[in-house]
Amino acid sequence: MRDGNATHTTTGPANGSGRAAAREAMRERILDAALTLLARDGFAGFGVNAVAREAGCDKVLIYRYFNGFDGLLDSLGARLDIWLGPEDSDGVSGHYGSVMRSVLQDYLRALRANNLVKQILAWELVQDDDATRRIGKAKGDAIGRWFQGVRQRSGPPPAGSDAAVLNAVLIAAAHHLALRENSSGDFMGLDLRDPNCWARIEAVFNTIITGAYGAPDGTEDPP
User: Fold this and answer.
1) Domain count, the chain
2) SUPFAM superfamilies, alphabetically (predicted)?
C-alpha cells in the first residue's frame, strides 16, 4: 500500500483522449494559420515554414499531422466548412429543384459573409501554380462529394437537364458577383452593396433553377 502522499499517474483511456484532443486542436490551429496566411499574403511564399511561423509551432508538426505541405493543401481544400459555411441546407430534402434553390441561397449568403474565403478565391484566379491547383482540386472533389449527398437527399435531377454544367455556372456566377462586391462594388450597373440588389439576384437564381429543374408539382413555383 502506498502512503497518502504518493502520486498516481493516469495512463488509461482518459489520458489518451486528452492527447487526441490536443492533436486535433493543433491541427485546427495550423489550418487556421494557413487560411489567415493565404488571405493576407496569397500563395506567393506560402509554404511549410511560413505556415509554421504563423501558427507559432515547429514545422515538424505539419509533417506529423499532414504528412507535409501537399497534405496540408489537401486538408484545406477538403474542409467544407471553409467553402460552404454552416451548411444550413443540410437538412433540406425533397424535389431536386427545391433542394438546389436552398443550397445555392445558403452558399451565396455564406460566401458573401466570409471575406477570408473571398480573398482566397481571388488569389486562385490570378495565380496558377502547384499549390493553387492542388487546393483547387481538393476543394472541387470535396464539393463534388457534397453534391452527391444532395442527390441522395433529393434524387437525380430531371431527365435531360445538364445539372453538372448548370450548377457549375451558378456557383461561378455566385463567386464572381461576391468578389465584385468586395472590389468595385458593382457589375453591369448592379449596385452590389445594396441589399435589395442581392434579393433580386437570389430571385433570379431561383427562377433559373426552377426553369431548369421544375417545381415539386411540375409547375413554376414562385422564388
Assistant:
1) 2
2) Homeodomain-like
Tell me the C-alpha distance between 99 and 142, whole Å. Answer: 18
Rounded to an integer, what is the distance from CA 56 to the centroid of its chain? 25
Helix (H, G, I), strand (E, B) or coil at 91: helix
CB 101 within 8 A of CB 157: no
- For the segment 72-110, what is each residue's pLDDT rounded down to a tens digit? 988 888 876 667 665 544 556 678 888 888 888 888 988
Do 112 and 133 reside in the same domain of the chain? yes
- Domain membership flag for residue 169: yes
The one-letter amino acid code at 4 reads G
Beta-strand relationship, 190-191 and 186-187 = antiparallel
Grid cell digits, residue 76 = 484545406
Give domain status of residue 102, yes or no: yes
Domain that holds residue 146: 81-213
Cell numbers representing residue 15 in the block: 489520458
Residue 98 and residue 202 in one domain = yes
- Residue 115 within any structural domain of the chain: yes
Q: What is the full DSSP assignment across 25-41?
A: HHHHHHHHHHHHHHHHH
Can you list the alpha helix ranges (DSSP code H) found in the chain?
13-41, 48-55, 60-66, 69-78, 80-84, 96-113, 115-126, 130-154, 163-182, 195-213
Output the pTM of the full model. Answer: 0.70
Mean pLDDT of the chain: 82
Round to whole Å and give the CA distance between 181 and 101: 21
Q: Smallest Cα–Cα separation from 213: which of 110, 119, 100, 120?
A: 100
What is the C-alpha to C-alpha distance for residues 78 and 72, in angstroms, rounded to an integer?
10
